[in-house]
Known about the structure:
Radius of gyration of chain B: 23 Å
CATH topology of the domain at 1-97 in chain A: Four Helix Bundle (Hemerythrin (Met), subunit A)
Number of helices of chain A: 8
Shape of chain A: globular
Oligomer: heterodimer
Strand order of the largest sheet of chain B: 1-2
CATH architecture of the domain at 1-97 in chain A: Up-down Bundle
Largest interface: A-B, 34 and 51 residues
Order of helices and strands of chain A: HHHHHHHH
Amino acid sequence: MSLHLILFLTFGAVCVAGAVNLLAQRHPINSALSLIAVMGALAGEYLLLGAEFVAAIQLIVYAGAIMVLFVFTIMLLNAGEEERTKGSRVAILLGVPGMLIGGTLVAWVLLRHSGTGSAPVGALLGDPKTIGQLLFHEFLLPFEVTSILILIAIMGAVVLATKPEATENRKAR
Amino acid sequence: MTGFPTLSFAAALLEALPPSMDYLRILPEIVLSIFGMVIMVLDPLMDERQSRKTLGAIALAGAVAGMWATWRMARSPGVAFWNMVRVDGFSVFFHFLIIAIAAVVILISFEYMAVQQIRAGEYYGLILFGVVGMALMSSAIELVLIFIALEISSISSYVLAGFRRQEAASSESSLKYFLLGSFATAFFLYGIALIFGATGSTNVDDVSRALRSASPPLLAYVSVALMFVGLGFKVAAAPFHIWTPDVYEGAPAPIVGLMSTAPKAAAFAVLLRIVFAMNAPGPFWLIWVSAALSMTLGNIGALVQNNVKRLLAYSSIAHAGYLLVAFAATPELGTSAVMFYTAAYAAMNVGAFAIVSHFANAGERYVTLEDYEGLGRSCPLMAATLAIFLLSLIGIPMTGGFFAKFYVFSAAMKSHLIGLTIIGVINSAVGAYYYLRIIVVMYMRESRKEVPIMPVPIGLAWALAISTAATIYLGVLPNSVLRYAQHSAQEMVQQSAPMVQQSAPSGTATFGGPCACMRKL
């Protein structure tokens, strides 16, 4: 067993365990913290693939910035423990076996597939220069179009977050 | 390296810039984005009490300019931005269709927004931005770009669904759509990742070449199945249809008209590219089962509905099923049948929702079948228009719905899909019941309830005129549209399948999967 494989399995195990814990936890703050573990473990996996830039970005943006925002939002909303309803129990009864079956199927296919026609991931990704060239040359259009995606997400958040009666209040004042 | 860093930099920059022709090939998207941004900037500058109709008019102008841009784009076919988008007859058709739907929906929204007292500044901007995403979906040939475009179209629909801010049902609709939609998008994304793992590329053409050169790996089947789950959700095909009635019931009626046609047309365009242009392996039985289920569940569900919006939601599930029948047919017949069907369905469904949004009144109070009683007498013209759309949804001759169904089922018959055709025809007969029920209620019952009838404003009148004209036109003179669809279908299938070009015109030998499967049965 090479060191590479050991590291891969370790990070993979942390990642899956974190993801399962994220779903199992009832308090949102615990879920958010396990999401940080998932993000960190994923960064490790990226590093093993030779994508050190993506790994660093993953840590800085996801595990860092976005998760801080998550935790702050949970704190500000003062979100309490989630309640289990009858519907969620049914969802667990049906969803867990369904997910297990689906996951096993995909895993089985991936295991059978190993070796034949694998894509050269290490050759494609990697340093910031390659990523920059890909991003601003071949993938220029998707990159630019993403700005529209972010724009409508911001617009949507503003529209749905402003109180409908806010305009009336201001008029009254 | 060369000693002239500035010169080599300039040369590299020139090389890196896309040729100006490329911008022409995404001109509709550029024009619509600019108009969207203008609306976004103007909205906060306007006085708060002022009506937002001006912004709606700008959005309408944007849609018209977008159609002009589509016409300009159509004259320079080809790929652009390093194989990201392709302008061909197929993408031009869907561009035009989607932008036309948006224009009609904006026309409907003028009255609706005023009656519901919704401040609709961002509303018009979001429609235009959503259209950018949908239009890109139809021309993108790179799965990464398709994914981003799909997200743009989805996020704008999630937000638009929640625009009736005073109603809890609207927030419920928005949240449900958002949660389930993100879940479905994850499936689509996982499918893209696996197709990259199987073929080493995410470009539709490259994937198609890789899949054809060798027997497709098992991984490709899984990835196609996952992508089908994602797109099946977007088009409300069973068994991924559960969200539809709740979301359609809560969302603003004009937006339901948009949601049930434009993003669906775009998602069907993507599905056509994946199933036919990408030569995806093994979607046949998936589509067969999903088509049969959607038709049956949609029609049965609609039988017991009392709310017109919910009824039309179930009807849209059934129509997604009819459309999926064409996906099981041979590529060229299937593609042209799907293109014609999406156009006809858009015309009649947007029209039907235009009338629903007119009658709904403040707070959407009047949307049950009871409220439609006696409309044939109190509001004869509107009732007659709704009847035309409903007859078209049934598939009565002289309306677009008839030829749409006719082409889909004849494509299925020519591809030896006897079983699926029989299920489809039986379902059409079942579907006739609930559409006719609305007509019967309108014309043969006395109204028991005081339903206020408002005069028809000019915007709505135009919207109804356009959709009625399109419905009748497609039903009386379907040839020109159909010929265009057939031509672009042939073009799309051939440019991705140079090896089967010789046998393509016969239309039977190209797609071994379904024919072989059916012969075995």
